[in-house]
């Protein structure tokens, strides 16, 4: 699965170089959110599998975000910008499941 994600990241990178990083990032994020929302209404496990594969294909936005941060930040602030992006990615992966579990317990 990792080679597939790497290939998707490269493809998003090429599209971003051709059409602009911000526009491609926004489109990829919108597709990502739509696919996540559709996961809430699936009725069969095959549908969920197809949606999760689609989510994985749009998971290459992380490297695109790093490229945008390095391109936009001043040279002396590049390390700080990359560090903030990576910290946000790690914190969201760490806090998201915890918050989801707490909400599932509270809501039912």
Please give the structural blueprint.
Layout: H1 2-19, H2 21-38, H3 45-57, H4 61-72, H5 78-107
Task: Describe the 3D structure.
The chain has five helices and no strands. It has 108 residues and is mostly helical. Helix 1 crosses helix 4, helix 2 packs antiparallel against helix 3 and helix 2 runs antiparallel to helix 4. The model has no long low-confidence stretch (mean pLDDT 83).
Features:
flat
Number of strands: 0
- Secondary-structure element series: HHHHH
Distance between the termini: 33 Å
Write down the oligomeric state: single chain
Mean pLDDT: 83
- Overall geometry comes to flat
Give the strand content: under 5%
Low-confidence stretches: none
Cα-atom radius of gyration: 16 Å
Helix content: over 70%
Count of helix runs = 5
Q: Label the structural class.
A: mainly alpha
State the major sheet. Answer: none
Summarize the model shown.
The protein has helices spanning 2-19, 21-38, 45-57, 61-72, 78-107. The chain is mainly α and 108 residues long.
